Amino acid sequence: MTARTLYDKIWDDHVVHQADDGTCLLYIDRHLVHEVTSPQAFEGLRMSNRKVRAPEKTIAVPDHNVPTTLDRANAATMTEDSRIQVQALDQNAKDFGIHYYPVSDVRQGIVHIVGPEQGWTLPGMTVVCGDSHTATHGAFGSLAHGIGTSEVEHVLATQTLIQRKAKNFKVEITGSLRPGVTAKDITMAVIGETGTGGGTGYVIEYCGQAIRELSMEGRMTVCNMAIEGGARAGLIAPDEKTFAYCMGRPHAPKGAAWEAAVAYWKTLYTDEGAHFDKVVTIKGEDIAPLVTWGTSPEDVLPITAVVPSPSDFTGGKVEAVQRALDYMGLVPGQKLSEIKIDTVFIGSCTNGRIEDLRAAAAILKGKKKKDGIRAMVVPGSGLVRAQAEEEGLAQIFIDAGFEWRLAGCSMCLAMNPDQLAPGERCAATSNRNFEGRQGRGGRTHLLSPGMAAAAAITGHLTDVRDLMAETV
Amino acid sequence: MDKFTTLTGIAAPMPLVNIDTDMIIPKQFLKTIKRSGLGVNLFDEMRYNLDGSEIADFVLNQPAYRKAEIIVAGDNFGCGSSREHAPWALLDFGIRCVISTSFADIFYNNCFKNGILPIVMPQEVVDVLMADAKKGANARQTVDLIAQTVTTSDGQVFAFEVDGHRKHCLINGLDDIGLTLEKATAIDSFEKKNAALHPWA
C-alpha cells in the first residue's frame, strides 16, 4: 500500500463521492457554529424549507459579540445589532435542535476552546466552523478548517463539503525549546519563515521533537495560527497526550467505544516515506521569544531585534512595510524592547487556555502592572475561568491590576465593546495584527502570554527572559 | 446566485500586498444578519475618514474608478478571516472579478459561492493588467470565463486556469446545495458505514 500522510488518511476516510475531475464530497463529523457567520445560513435553510441534516453533530455557542464584563447578564451591555445576532443564534439553535451553550451557561466560551473542552473534537474527525481559526482543532489530529457562510449552510443541509484535496506541507520543529519560548513563538516563527501566503493550498502537518513535547494546549496554539501562514488546516498526529486529554470529556466515547476509538486513533500518523509537497525545518533551539512589529503576522522578529526598514524588503512588500510602519508609528532601527505600550490583552482562541493563564500568572506573581497600563485577561471559556480561580491565578491577575473578565473573543477582533482607540498600542496574545483589527487605528503587537505579562509590568515590549531571571 | 459568463468593465488597481478581510470589510459591519447592503462599507477604513467623509486618494473614491467591476490586486488578496461578508461587500459594491497572483484559500472559495470570479495570474501578467488598470476609466478590461481569458484595453489577451466544477457552477449560476442533495444516497450509505466503523464520530 502506498505510504500516506496523516492528512491523506483522514481525507480518505471521509470521501463520500469523488467526481471524475477530482472534486470530492467530504463528510463532516463536527460542525461548530457561532453567531456572526451563521444567521444567513440558517435563513437560507428556512427559505428553501431545509432541515439540519445532523443536529447531533452540530454545536453552537455565541462568542464573538458577547460582552466580557461581569455585568453582561444585563442585556443593556450589548449593542442592539450584537443582541440581535446573539438572539438569532438562541432562536436558530432551538428551532433546528442543535447542541447549544448559551451566554448564561458556565461552559460558554470561544467556540474553538469549548469544542475540545467538551470532547466534541476528537482525533481523525473532520471539523468545520464558519471561522478561520477552526485550524485550532488540528492539534488533535483532526482535519479542521474554516468555511464561509455559504458552506456553513451547505454543511447544515448536507453534512458534507465540496472540496478538492490540498497539498501536503511538513513543518518540522527539531530539538527542544529554550526557556521563555512557547508554542506561540513556534507558530509565529513558522509564519516568519514561510510568509502569510506560504501555506496557501496546503495542509500543514507539524511534527518534530519540540511539537511532541508541547501540551495539548500548546499544540492548539500552534495549529490555531496555521491560517495566518495561509494554510486552511494544521495537523499534529495524536499520541498518548492527546488520548489523555480526550479521556473522560463529556462527549468523548466511553468503555468499549473508547477502546475502539483509541485503536483507530493509533493508526493516525504519517507513514514512513510518505510524500510531502513542501518541507520546512526549524531548530527549536533557534527560536527566540518573538513579537510582531507590523500589520501582517509575517512581520515578526525576536524581541532582541530592531524595527526593520522598507529597504530591507523587495517587491510589493516595500510599499506594504512603509505603510505598516506609518500605521504602527514606528521608525526603522528602533529597538523592539523599547516600544512603549498602552494596553495588554491576554486571551483569544490562540492563547486563552489554562496553560496560557498559568504562564502569564507565573510572570505576574507578586508584581503589579505599570501605572497607566490598561490590562485585561479574558479566559477562553467559563470552565477555564473557573479553573483559573480554583488555582489562584485569578487572584494573581487581580492583585497585579488586571481586569478579570468573563469568556469570549473580546479584543482579539473587537466586535464587542473591548476595543482599542486610534493610536492605542496593545501587547496582545491573539492572532492578527491587521490594520484596525482591535479597533480602528489600534496598534497590535502579537506575542506569547508570558511576554504580554512582562510588557504589562514594564510598560514596554520586554524580553520575558529578563523577568524570568528575576523570579528565579 | 447570478451567473458569470463575460464581463467588460473598469478595473481598479490595488497593488498593496496582503489585503486582508479586515480591510475589505471591518468587523463592525459583521453584525448584520443579512447578506446585502455591505457595499457602502467596502474597504471602510481605507475609504472614509473618521467623520465619514471620503478619503479622496483611495482608488474607489477616484472618479475614474467609482464604477469599477474588476480589482487588480497585490499578492495574497483576501487573507485573514473566513467572513463571507468580504465577497458580499465586494459584490454589493459591484465588483464581479478580482485578479491577483494569489488568494487566501477561504476567500477564494467564498467568491465562487457568490458569483464573483477570482483569477490567479502570474506576476508578469498581473503587472501588465495593473498598468492597464492605472490608465483609468477608459481602459476597460474584458473577462471571458467561457474562453478563460482576460483582455486588456489595448487588446492583449491572457489565458487563465479555473477549476472545472467551479466554472460550471458560475456559468450556470448553480446552487451547490441542490447539486449535493442529488447525492443524498451516497451520503446515507457513508453515514451507515461510518456508524459501524467509527460509532463515536
Description:
- The complex is a heterodimer of chains A (472) and B (201).
- Chain A is an alpha/beta fold and 472 residues long.
- Chain A has 17 helices and 19 strands.
- Chain A has a five-stranded parallel β-sheet, sandwiched between helices. In chain A, strands 17-16-15-18-19 form a five-stranded parallel β-sheet.
- In chain A, helix 2 (39-47) crosses helix 5.
- The mean pLDDT of chain A is 97.
- With 201 residues, chain B is of the alpha/beta class.
- In chain B, 32% of the residues lie in helices and 16% in strands.
- The model of chain B has no long low-confidence stretch (mean pLDDT 96).
- Chains A and B meet through helix 2, helix 3, helix 5, helix 10 and helix 11 of A and helix 4, helix 7 and helix 8 of B.
SSE map:
The complex is a heterodimer of chains A (472) and B (201).
Chain A: H1 6-12, E1 15-18, E2 24-27, E3 30-33, H2 39-47, E4 58-60, H3 80-96, E5 99-100, H4 111-117, E6 126-129, E7 143-146, H5 149-158, E8 160-163, E9 167-174, H6 183-194, E10 202-207, H7 209-212, H8 216-224, E11 233-235, H9 240-246, H10 255-265, E12 278-283, E13 290-292, E14 300-302, H11 317-328, E15 343-347, H12 348-351, H13 354-364, E16 374-378, H14 382-390, H15 393-399, E17 403-404, E18 425-428, E19 443-446, H16 449-458, H17 464-471
Parallel strand pairs in A: 3-4, 3-6, 4-5, 6-7, 9-10, 9-12, 10-11, 15-16, 15-18, 16-17, 18-19
Antiparallel strand pairs in A: 1-2, 2-8, 13-14
Helix pairs in contact in A: 2-5, 6-8, 13-15, 13-16
Chain B: E1 6-14, H1 21-24, H2 44-47, E2 70-73, H3 85-93, E3 97-100, H4 105-112, E4 117-120, H5 123-133, E5 140-144, E6 149-151, E7 157-159, H6 164-172, H7 176-181, H8 184-197
Parallel strand pairs in B: 1-2, 2-3, 3-4
Antiparallel strand pairs in B: 1-5, 5-6, 6-7
